[in-house]
Amino acid sequence: MRRSFMKTTTSFVCQECGYESPEWLGKCPECGTWNSLREFKSQVSNAKSQNYTSNLKTFGTQDLMPKNLSEIKFEKKSRLLTGFSEMDGVLGGGLVNGSVTLLAGDPGIGKSTLLLQMALTVASRLPHYSDDARKSGSKLKERIRSLNESRLSKESILEARSGSTFSSSENGQALSVLYISGEESEEQIKLRAERLSPGLKNQNLLLLSATNVDAIQQVVQNLKPSLIIVDSIQTMESEALTGLSGSVGQVRYAALSFIRTAKSLNIPVIIVGHVTKEGMVAGPMILSHMVDTVLFLEGEKATGTRILRSLKNRFGPVDEVGIFVMEGNGMAEVKTPEQFFLSKEQKSVPGSVLVSTIEGTRAFLVELQSLVVFSKFPLPRRVAIGIDNRRLELLLAVLQKHCRLPFETMDVFVNVAGGLKIQDPGTDLGICLSLFSSFKNIGLGKLVCIGEVGLLGELRNVPFLDKRIKEAKKLGFRNIVSAKTAKTLNEVIKSIQ
Ligand code: TYD
Ligand code: MG
Question: pTM of whole model > 0.70?
Answer without folding.
Answer: yes
